[in-house]
Design goal:
The chain is an all-alpha fold. Helix content is about 80%, strand content about 0%.
Length: about 270
């Protein structure tokens, strides 16, 4: 399968996972969910990763550590946004990730970027920023912008770190399990999941399975293509969530969110043109 198809499939899976995440955040102490969810993510892929050949050098270990720290920070930002925004609003915020992915690709991968790719990423970013004001309930615009910017930066950096690991021969299972387990342990230590009941395990496992599917598809896409293009195609998630809201729940999205989603479409078209 091509990188484009895998990235678009990842966007579909993330749309479903986002809806489940919003439900969990509404039912439980949201910050306490991060550690258990990340650890479940790693556990689901561990049997496959255990059978793979792991390449361990100091460069790979350093990249695993940086990836874990990046994933943990990004997870806290995203779960905080879910506590106040709809799944579609959070997905629109995450759609800013192509811009930092482009920047980190230039810095860390010495990638070449065309003018159309740069214009597409700027279009996505401008549209998202225009929608941020009322999209996150009680959050101030400054706080919403800060959280979205940090979430986007960590998402963009994570996809570039993934490419660096893949270039050094690390496999999908190794990349995913190492960073997710380390991030989950760190998150559980920082915010202990005292109030997450055992009865929540089936719900947490289902969400982890969806989120794991998203990340594995994204890693496979990055192995085959440019991190910037892959991240931009994955940014179509908000369109899928908006469409689901209209078709399934007959829920009309706000004008600002719709504008941001259209900006994502235009930006994606420019990047892949």
């Amino acid at each position: 399968m091509t990188a484009a198809i895998l990235a678009l499939a990842a966007a579909v899976v993330l749309a479903v996972a986002s809806a489940f995440t919003k439900r969990l955040v509404s039912d439980f102490a949201h910050r306490q969910l991060i550690g258990p969810l990340l650890l479940l993510n790693a556990l689901l892929v561990l049997p496959v990763a255990a059978l793979a050949h792991w390449r361990l050098s100091w460069q790979i270990l350093l990249l695993h550590g940086l990836s874990a720290a990046t994933l943990m920070v990004g997870s806290f930002c995203v779960i905080e946004l879910f506590s106040e925004g709809t799944a579609a609003a959070v997905a629109v915020g995450q759609a800013m990730a192509p811009m930092p992915a482009l920047v980190f690709s230039l810095i860390l991968l010495s990638s070449t970027v065309t003018g159309m790719q740069a214009l597409g990423d700027v279009t996505v970013t401008v549209g998202v920023l225009a929608a941020l004001g009322p999209a996150f309930g009680e959050f101030s615009r400054a706080r919403a912008v800060a959280l979205v910017a940090l979430a986007a930066a960590t998402s963009g950096l994570l996809v570039v770190l993934t490419k660096l690991l893949a270039n050094r021969g690390a496999g999908i299972g190794e990349i995913y399990v190492a960073r997710t387990a380390l991030a989950g342990l760190a998150a559980a230590v920082l915010v202990r999941p005292r109030d997450i009941p055992f009865r929540a395990l089936p719900q947490l496992t289902l969400r982890s399975a969806l989120q794991t599917g998203y990340y594995l598809l994204l890693i496979a896409a990055v192995e085959r293509g440019s991190p910037t293009t892959v991240q931009t195609l994955a940014a179509t998630t908000p369109l899928l969530l908006l469409a689901a809201g209209v078709v399934v729940r007959r829920q009309r999205p706000s004008g600002r969110i719709t504008f941001a989603a259209l900006a994502v479409v235009c930006g994606v078209a420019l990047v892949v043109s």
